[in-house]
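Support case: user asked for a sample of complex input and structure output to validate their parser. Sending the pair below.
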Amino acid sequence: MHRALPGFREFYPADCALRNHIFATFRRVVRRFGFEEFDGPTLEPLELFTEKSGQEIASQLFHFEDRGGRAVALRPEMTPTLARMVGARAAGLKRPMRWSNVGEAFRYERPQKGRLRSFYQMNADLLGVEGAAADGELLLLLLSVLSEFGLTAEDFHVRIGDRCLWNLFLSQFSLDGVEPVLAAIDRMEREEGTRERLLALAPADGAAIWDGISVLRTCHGLDGLRQFFGQFAPLRERAEQRLADWEGLLECVAGAGFSPNVSVDLTVVRGLAYYTGFVFEAFERGGEGRALAGGGRYDDLVSKLAGTPLPAVGFAIGDVTLANLLVEKQLVPVYHPRPAVFVLWEGDRHREGLALVTELRRHGLAVLWDLSPVSRSLSKQMQRADRSGAIFSLFAAADGNGPVTLRHMESGEEEKMDRAAAISRLVECHRRPGFTGPDLRQDP
Amino acid sequence: MHRALPGFREFYPADCALRNHIFATFRRVVRRFGFEEFDGPTLEPLELFTEKSGQEIASQLFHFEDRGGRAVALRPEMTPTLARMVGARAAGLKRPMRWSNVGEAFRYERPQKGRLRSFYQMNADLLGVEGAAADGELLLLLLSVLSEFGLTAEDFHVRIGDRCLWNLFLSQFSLDGVEPVLAAIDRMEREEGTRERLLALAPADGAAIWDGISVLRTCHGLDGLRQFFGQFAPLRERAEQRLADWEGLLECVAGAGFSPNVSVDLTVVRGLAYYTGFVFEAFERGGEGRALAGGGRYDDLVSKLAGTPLPAVGFAIGDVTLANLLVEKQLVPVYHPRPAVFVLWEGDRHREGLALVTELRRHGLAVLWDLSPVSRSLSKQMQRADRSGAIFSLFAAADGNGPVTLRHMESGEEEKMDRAAAISRLVECHRRPGFTGPDLRQDP
């Protein structure tokens, strides 16, 4: 007896409908923000991911050598592929580029609730423009997508951090690069021992860095940040400039009515090494507080991967935690697909019957007929029509052009009528909203 | 400089729009046939594919050992996953099951025109019902999907073969299984040496088999088949039964008006070992005559993979050849996405401006605004509005609640009006069909 691999999902129709509802909702919202969809290979050269994304991802790759001896990996994220693609055609693309993607990604991790080895990511990236307005626009997109599912500020919040402010603070100390310190801050909410880690990284300054972190992680507003950086005269001016960016960002959020959904939170630094500015993560509120989405500005990645400098900001929403949350909050549309019509005919007059079936389908209706190889008596066909859940049945009598009988299955009401009239009636019903009841398959 | 792997595609927005148009068209048509979408893992245990699909596929797999020591493979096709899933829940699923899928598949082959290492397959399978009516229904679905793209009988045809008739013919000879003979027939259109291959397989009967094949491959109608099998008295009765199935199948096709699109052609046997009855392939007409789709009945696979007997018939359409044909025939919708409105405001009044942007987006319109960090003068904003391709611009003067100026970009006509009136006007325009011109992104 075969089984799926651990951490991989089988999507039975109701599961697939939920997945497709998530995809469709994302696509509907990104269109309103002027985004265009792109996609890239699921399998990529290994070095595309090991080179710039940092160790966190490299250790979790599904990678192998293909038959041609190439080191290849299933993509763990979309951003390096995006950076390569945009970089390769940067000169010919209209800026800013607003690109979105819905695609599968793979990480070899221990499967657990909300974390699988295969998952879908919905990515949105805004490239070719610097500054807080672009960061704000992207943040609004994330907030709008989550809201479109029916989630409110009581269900989720977005925490915004800032690598620029960390870099500014850390510029006072002599360090072998800030990356290991940022990695330590990233881990501090999940693991003990940050202070010891910092002392190991910077024996002379570790204690001062720890003290600064301890204050900064509790600053949940711009006033607190202003006060903190005010202590350090050499940093004051650059801090003020950056806080003006923060004001611009938060004004975007306020203008769109999303202030209750966001908070300033410098403990958010994001694990991927390529981020350079604002970073943000969306979390469930209450309960397990799982991460729903994350992103930020990465102004150097395109340059590093494709040789073309191109500022960029982007985010990814995962489908696993989001789907769990939608189920918990009862925000999943009912899945109850029903055919519109079941067509019946006497004897083996497939030709006439199928002409009718085909005409109705050409009008967009979901139409079934009895496929049984045996016992196609009218009563048997009617039983099957009943079991199919069809809203109407349509009985075509023996004469191909004669009248037909249209029956509303639930009420049992039926009417003998002209074939063309029956088709018109059904097509007209079909155009009415809610014709088949709440049905994901009717959702565009 | 990084590149994608050979045989893998990058989908820039216009390419992705064509891909999504293909997916959307398929999904639209399968819904009319009452199909439900499912999906399964992209990565599967290797043995799922090596066990039952035959050597043709097994030699073309991307397979490797994962970090847990499991032999795994990227799926080369969807059918084994489907068989496992349906088999595992067969008792609880309403029959017949009509299941469709749109998914990526992978084969390590030499990349060439129409053949890549990664491609998309659109699958449709009808399970739980035997007989020619189900085969006919599925064939109609394939014909309807291809027609929905605008392709006609001049562009493609479907050739229908029959493993039952081959099995019947070969039952006269003493053979070590019919599979190697069917494989030889499958290869005969692409390769020389079939007669020699048959003589090697069956030294005593090879010549007689070759003679039979030579006649059967030229039978393009039921009369010819009836005449051929009439020669062999012991086969006559079973041949007549099978030809009655053929009549049922062709009557379905005729009823739906697709007779010009199909032909009887026993040279079609399909490479996969699991087929058991009718098999069919859709080809381009003329030109290179590449295969667009293929499928058939596979009544034993679910039983073999999941232990539950379940008759089934299905097909897969590949996206690569289909996309090439649509381009050749100029059946690709124009991709020219345009935002509906570009919103401008004076100074740094982001809060008021973004409230307007957000409201318009909530009504479903694609709305842009100027993200530039510098030089947000009105004239600069207007330039950017112009370059964006937006249909309208909307200028919100300094006072957040004051009148706004709505401008139709192409004609230059503009009108100062109440904010609420401008929003209503835009929403109303947006609801009109063709508001943004031919735009794939508006296609449901």
